[in-house]
Write a structure and sequence with these properties.
By secondary structure, this protein is of the alpha+beta class. It is built from 23 helices and 25 strands. The longest helix is centred in the middle third of the chain and has 26 residues.
Amino acid sequence: MQQIIVKDGDYNCPPQVTKQDWIDILSDDSFMSNNYKFALSIFYLEPEHKATCKYLAEKYHTHPTSISGFITQFSARLQGKLDRFEIIREDGSPNWWLVTMTGKKIAGGLFEWRLRDELIEAIFELNYVQKSMLQIHDIEALIKYVNNDIYDFATRFVKTRQHLADLKRPNSAKQFFTYESKDRDWAVNVGGSDEVQYRIYLRDGVVGYGLGFNTRYVESERRPNFEYIKPYMEAFISLRESDEITKLEDRGFSLDNDITDINDFEKGKYYLYGRQIKMNGKYLSLIDYYSIINDLKGGLFEVYKKVYELTNKLRVNSDEVAQDVQQPITSPLLQDISKLLLANKNLILTGAPGTGKTYLAKTLAEEWGAKYELIQFHPSYDYTDFVEGLRPIQNVNGEVGFELRDGSFKKFCKEALKYQNNQQLSNFEEVYQRFIDDISESSTDLTTPSRESPFSIIVNSRENITAVLSSETQRQITLTKPLIQNYLETGKSLRWKPYLTSVCDYIEESYDLRMSDTGDKSKKFIIILDEINRAEISKVLGELFFSIDPGYRGRVVESLLSMPICKRMKMYLKKVFIYQITSISSAL
């Protein structure tokens, strides 16, 4: 296999793919995904077929990392498919972009990339942009395309909705839109019948999509839907002047009825805040199609979250008003319970369902001004959910591996420790976003601190960092966002420390990170374990069962440190003092 070595700072090399090669590749539908077609098309349509990822992201309402990820994946797969050359840097790390592009560094630290001449000629000869239009006969075909191309987003969406809707378990992420009947010309997101929902339709050669509010009678459940959906409509009206909605309206989004007040909504109607795209017969251009995809993942998702969050706040306020007329929990009761918890560190509340155990626990935590976490146990809840467990992850090449992820208890301990040690960054989200924006245009080269082993970092499609080892060109290491944040805040890491240290040093040198001033060192932390008798406790706690005993609080049991989990949890068991309130529902 031929090796083409590119010098540092050089963004060009002799072409390795002929025009005929490109024609063959572009004609291979089994290889060319819609993502690849879209990324190549938007570069091709620019003057002189060149642009920066940042410019294209702003033009097509997406993120630079998405475009960068599409080109990186396409180029890497193409090089592997041809299997006759590899383009590498002087340190041995791969330079996939030069398979497809040539580039140069321009003002502002950006990179301007241009399609290879041979690729441009192949696209022109095939009339590729026109021929890449999607043939869509009906709504079922449209839904199939969309569900396939936003699969990663669907996973993120169901997790976000699980949090917003306070669900015990997320809905299936196998598909985003659910299509149940051939009599329908529309579809909505999975699980969204009684709330603000994503909706898409295909009617008379027009694709419409947006956020919907259904006030119609629900036939399957024989009940009206208006009262269920009303809080979401109130939230949407309150947000009409927000930046998120204004941006969408500048792009042609509008409510299909003139609504200024909640009283303008009528029962028995469907309201869609959306946009329409006219098809060319049975065909939809990739540019129009990806405007739909990018809106679903971008602007509409931001509005969806805002509407849901405001709805939840409105409901909390409504609940507080309702509680004002109920018999309040008396102060002496809270005082008695508070003394018990302070003395024993653990508290078990028992009683029949609906007698206020969870409410009492939360009220006590709020009276203390404590940071608290409510975790509801259920029969399938286990050690991997509560402490830690392996979770599947996918790298930029689509290969699946496993990564150790913290459970809810361990995450809470970490947050408590960071607070007590004043180790919380106040602007991490902002800095991390700037960091991935800056490196999304091109990979960044770093070295490990001790052995000075070179490696490069790129942003993958999940907005995590992928470290590509130059000594092992096939090996890639994923540095997740939480892993980076934890190291920046605590200086501690359980894996990939040489690479993590270099990445975090680069961030600290390049950006202005600021620590929060937590101030109150006496702040208490309470974990509320709700319905604990619904789970098998030994399966949930494992080796940490001894931590319930107040006698072991604040110190480590040395005889247990041979167990891997106890070694990893040592600093939390020794330094973090967390109060525990447990509820058990007993029979009437």
